[in-house]
Design a protein that fits this description.
The complex is a heterodimer.
Chain A lengths: L37 H9 L3 H18 L1 H4 L30 H37 L1 H15 L3 H12 L3 H27 L3 H8 L4 H37 L11 H8 L7 H29 L8
Helix pairs in contact in A: 1-11, 2-4, 2-11, 4-5, 4-7, 4-9, 4-11, 5-7, 6-7, 7-9, 8-9, 9-10, 9-11, 10-11
Chain B lengths: L12 H5 L7 E14 L2 E14 L3 E5 L6 H9 L6 E4 L2 E4 L2 E2 L5 H10 L1 E4 L3 H4 L6 H12 L4 H14 L5 H4 L9 H13 L5 E5 L7 H18 L2 E6 L2 H7 L2 E6 L2 E7 H6 L4 H8 L80
The chains are: A mainly alpha, B alpha/beta.
Chain lengths: ~325, ~350
């Protein structure tokens, strides 16, 4: 890929998804009405990343499992059809755990918990991170200084330490994990959004919006934010995966949910002492974690490909 | 679609015919001084500029980069960064002072009463919103109309600026428009609320020549339809000659010469204006005379030359020019204003490029 000289003189604009290799106006005057809906266009580009499509199918399966766990799982997550651990069999596909609970059912219920933790924690992070990043990037000055230094301080505290402390105060539960991850995850998003805003607010369309009499908040959230969202969307998909992984880590450290909760991380944690007699107790929830996290990372990858402005005019 | 009205430097008749010296005074600025506070000291970007804009006229502001023409426009709308300090004896918009207007009032003025058109329509339109929606938003902000009405008016506006199939075009994004259409869309947005004054900051610089003519024609037609005025900022003398009624030449933050288009082009009274015109190629005069660039470079605003800022580059400069700062009266009475002590020696018909001191 080299830049041909002919593509250079036309590069008048800098604003986001605009100039492709064909230069401005390459979309042409002739194709009136050929305006493809942006969703279809998005899907067309997402589809090219085969792994991302597979990941999306996996995610849909996970969501179905999570929503219909009561119908799909043969046993309740806290039901004890047996009294001791058994190897996988036709009755218990993934075997049973130390106190005789069906691991297959617990892994299915675990999807509900992992997705809930991953998604809610990410939603909290994104909302706080976007607002904080937008405000500090747009207004700058002392507002920016205060927010950014606050972020610096919190980024320098390992979230594990923070999580264990919060869990100690609030008690171990799913919601504690969500809150901990939500209130630590926004820090990175603030930085991403802030830097986008710093760049975007200097562009001419922001000046034009001011010249047209638009108010600051409208410019901030209606005009700059949509232009800054692309990295946030990509990051969010990856963040859901990280949050699920973090839940596992916290459970492993004893700062996560408590026992009957079928959290995958917790299942791995309880199984770790009996790796030799009952490896399946650890294997299946661990694989569930790997597959789920991988699915979100690959979806993030696909989103990036589909949203990347440099890919915009590629056919 | 295209027109014969605009054909370069020599076509000055169009401008002078439409001159309306008796129109209502929309904008009156007296002794505008805008400086930027920097670490290296204050930069006087605009230094004592006075002018009026009347309803129905096109006033062109001409000058090199850094002459203060854009800063003048930005000062009017209060669009400059916080490092700018704006002072003036007065800056009246239809009799109301803009200097101490509150932020809310300024937001009404911007877009609603004074609208601005930017140089690069691609970067001035928001890439993530549909063109029709951007225009509708503008209408919704300034007027209390329903969303549906605003959207249908947006389509009317696109139609008005000559965009074919306006209804389907309204649903497209800026990157799907060609350069000329983007500028038209920008104009449609600017005029959506029928402003009284359009400030066009190099509206055609980013466009190719054939599209330039069309865009200028649209601007002029709309000005007449809306009975508004245009403040045109440009360094393109061809554009100036084609459409303006009056011309104000700026150099290093000061006014060099002000007059009707005919006066400035045919009875030039400032050596800088003459220099600008001589450095311009003429389509109808091939080969007879080489282009004459103005020697030297525009001065740094931080270290302006003493006296007349133009004197180090001026072929007419005398002893006095490095000592005293000329103002618009320095050129003597009985002619159009020129800030040159030797205005009488600038030879007349510079549009014919005959002049010089000889």
């Amino acid at each position: 890929m080299t830049i041909t000289p002919s593509s250079l003189p036309s590069a008048g604009g800098v604003a986001g998804p605009t100039d492709g290799p064909g230069g401005p106006g390459a979309a042409g005057i002739s194709d009136v009405g050929a305006a493809t809906s942006s969703w279809r266009e998005f899907w067309r580009r997402y589809r090219k990343n085969k792994m991302a499509v597979v990941a999306l199918v996996l995610l849909i399966v996970l969501i179905i499992l999570a929503v219909f766990a009561d119908q799909i799982a043969p046993y309740r997550f806290d039901e004890r059809p047996l009294t001791k651990t058994t190897a996988p069999s036709w009755d218990h596909l993934f075997g049973t755990d130390q106190i005789g609970r069906d691991i297959f059912s617990r892994v299915i219920y675990g999807a509900r918990i992992s997705l809930r933790i991953g998604i809610l924690a990410t939603v909290i992070s994104v909302v706080i991170g976007v607002v904080a990043g937008a405000v500090s990037g747009f207004f700058g000055g002392w507002v920016d200084t205060i927010i950014s230094r606050f972020v610096d301080v919190f980024l320098s505290i390992p979230y594990i330490v923070l999580a264990v402390s919060i869990a100690a105060v609030m008690g171990r539960s799913e919601n504690t994990v969500i809150i901990v991850l939500g209130f630590t995850g926004w820090l990175a998003i603030q930085r991403v959004v802030r830097s986008s805003f710093l760049q975007l607010k200097e562009l001419e369309f922001v000046e034009a919006a001011t010249a047209l009499g638009y108010g600051r908040w409208r410019i901030m959230f209606r005009h700059i934010l949509p232009n800054a969202l692309q990295p946030v969307i990509v990051y969010s998909a990856i963040a859901v995966g990280s949050a699920i992984l973090a839940e596992a880590a916290l459970s492993f450290l004893g700062a996560g949910p408590v026992d009957p909760t079928p959290a995958w991380g917790l299942m791995v944690f309880t199984a770790k002492g009996r790796l030799k007699p009952a490896p399946y107790e650890l294997f299946f929830p661990a694989v569930a974690i790997v597959i789920t996290v991988l699915a979100f990372l690959l979806i993030g990858d696909g989103l990036r490909d589909a949203l990347d402005p440099k890919m915009k005019n590629r056919s | 679609m295209s027109d014969g009205q605009y054909s370069g430097v020599t076509d000055t008749t169009y401008g002078s015919e439409t001159s309306r010296p008796d129109g209502e005074v929309l904008l009156s600025i007296r002794n505008l001084r805008t400086r930027f506070v920097t670490e290296d000291g204050d930069v006087p970007a605009v230094n004592g500029v006075s002018f009026e804009v009347r309803r129905g006229e096109v006033l062109s502001v001409v000058g090199e980069s850094g002459s203060g023409k854009s800063v003048t426009a930005m000062s009017i709308l209060g669009l400059l960064p916080s490092t700018a300090r704006i002072e003036a004896d007065h800056m009246l918009w239809r009799g109301e002072s803009l200097l101490n207007a509150g932020e809310n009032r300024m937001r009404q003025v911007r877009g609603g009463e004074i609208a601005m058109i930017f140089q690069d329509p691609l970067s001035a339109l928001n890439p993530v919103h549909k063109v029709g929606r951007q225009i509708a938003e503008m209408i919704l902000i300034h007027e209390s109309v329903s969303k549906k009405e605003a959207e249908s008016r947006a389509v009317d506006m696109l139609d008005l600026v000559g965009i074919p199939q306006a209804a389907s075009r309204a649903g497209m994004y800026p990157h799907e428009f060609s350069g000329g259409m983007r500028q038209r869309a920008m104009i449609a947005m600017a005029i959506a609320c029928s402003p009284d004054l359009l400030i066009a900051d190099e509206p055609t610089t980013a466009l190719d020549v054939t599209v330039q003519a069309q865009v200028l024609e649209v601007l002029l037609r709309l000005k007449d339809e809306l009975n508004s005025a245009i403040l045109l900022i440009t360094h393109d003398l061809g554009v100036v000659a084609g459409i303006s009624d009056r011309v104000m030449v700026m150099y290093a933050g000061r006014q060099a010469e002000v007059g009707s288009t005919d006066q400035v082009f045919y009875r030039t009274r400032h050596p800088y204006t003459l220099g600008l015109m001589r450095s311009l190629p003429r389509l109808d005069d091939v080969g007879s005379e080489p282009l004459m660039p103005i020697t030297g470079a525009p001065p740094s605003l931080l270290r302006l030359p003493t006296g007349c800022a133009f004197h180090p580059r001026c072929p007419l400069a005398g002893e006095r020019c490095s000592k005293d700062v000329p103002d618009l009266n320095s050129g003597g009475l009985g002619h159009h204003p020129s800030a040159c002590f030797y205005a009488d020696e600038v030879s007349g018909d510079s549009a014919g490029l005959a002049g010089g001191r000889a």
